[in-house]
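Question (not urgent): is this output format expected?
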Amino acid sequence: MESKFTAVDYTIFGLMLAVSIGIGIYCAVKSRGKESTQEYMLGGRNMSPLPVAMSLLGGVISSISILGNSTEMYFFGTQLATSLLGFIPGTIFLNQVMLPVLYNLKIVSLNEGGVKAVVYTDVMQTLVMFLGVLVVVIICCVDLGGLGNMWRIANEGNRIEFFNLDSSPFVRHTFWSTFVLGFFVMIGSIGLNQAVYQRFASVSSLRIAKRLSIFFLVGVYCLWTLFFLSGLVAFATYSTCDPLTSGKITKPDQILPFLVTDKLSHLTGLAGVFVSAVYGGVLSSLSSTGNSLACMIWEDFLKHRPYFSGLSSKSATNVVKIISSFTGVLAVIFGLLVGSLGNVFHVIFSITSSVIGPLAGLYVTGMCLPWVTAKGGIVGITVSMTYGLWIVVGKFIRGGGSPPRLPLSTSGCPEALFNASVNAFLNITTVGDSHLPTSTLSDGLLPITTLANTTGLEGSAAKTPYDVSYCYSGTICMIMTMVISSLASLCTGPNHPKELVSGTINPTCEKLYVKLWKSFGGQGEASSTRHRELQVEESSMKMLNSDSPPLIPLTTP
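Got this back:
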């Protein structure tokens, strides 16, 4: 794909990078010498809700959403858009079940246990991301004769589909599978995402954190709808001359960048705006992920080790910053490797669901299933993660072809029109016999070309677990963890209600479990030794999460 960047485009792109760097430098200078690790990782838990809300969107919605969602619309149609409906019950579950537990624990890392710079940078990058794609969609819709005409072309190309009610789990996208995908994304990829949690924890109250989740839902609807529309706009623009089939691009995910450089290059600076939007999504996710990963590494692996536990607050903050920078470099390297794996949306969800699904199941189990013991949880997540990884690795080894794409036409390409004209001319001048079939050239156009790997066609062979839609993968792993953890715990002896640590279980689930325990005749008391151990663990957690070092009593030998 040929680049058509001008000096103006490079200037716009450079300004976006400069502003991002400037925000980071400003926040670093402003807090120099007075920033603790809590301040760096959570902004002191008193950040303004509006920038945090914008950062919440920018940190999660990345270039994967911009390029991946538009590609899905172009090649597979709009059925994926119904995943937005699944976000609604997912948000309710997050708001009512998960946030009250996680926020009130006052932890830093979800695994117990420069967010300011990241938040303010995300605000700028989110606005650039939204406006950049919005400008492209509006201009292309105007060129196509309006939104209604664009929708008509997409509908004629079989791209519009919202209610495919096929109940088969082997169909890639149906109303049911995409609804389940939306629910899982909100629970596993949003609700239990370290970067997202840091933003929820950076505001001053649980009430504000709950409002952020509602704002996030509305923001996702706006941004994803815009990204979906960009894919439909691209299809309507190339409905008769597909760039991938005609060899103008080499990967499906290049369709939207190609649209900008091919059709809108006459608008000086627009290519720079769009690339800034895409890179804004990349940088917002990169900064958020780097900060959150550094937070987890420090809190869960380094903070309590002898060497690091003796560091001053300033030195500890510097260590976290170094880790954050290092993880950013690794993310760039892995991004270059993933780029060769195929459709970015499909690849990302297929791989991450095998890990996020079991982990989400473990967290939900811990918050909602009080009877599950530590041993039961280990058994559940081990079996579930083994299954998830087996499915992912098996798919890559077994192959099976790409999912079938909807019809793509090259009949309007200049080369196709020229060849069709030559063939029609030769038929007229050299064929005077009506006995020869002419149906393939009767309209003077090349036939529609459908890109599909026949080995990947749904229904072409006996189905196996590898053929189940990727939309179900994460939810299957999550449910598997919960069910197996429960069975293992019930077989080995469930938790006694008095063994539960206050604040780690959803209150409603805890009350229900106590009633069930009493109704089934469970009157035994937890051992006094175990009760004392839980009290000591709870006290230690509180001391570790406090800003000041714990007091160690003096003892005599």
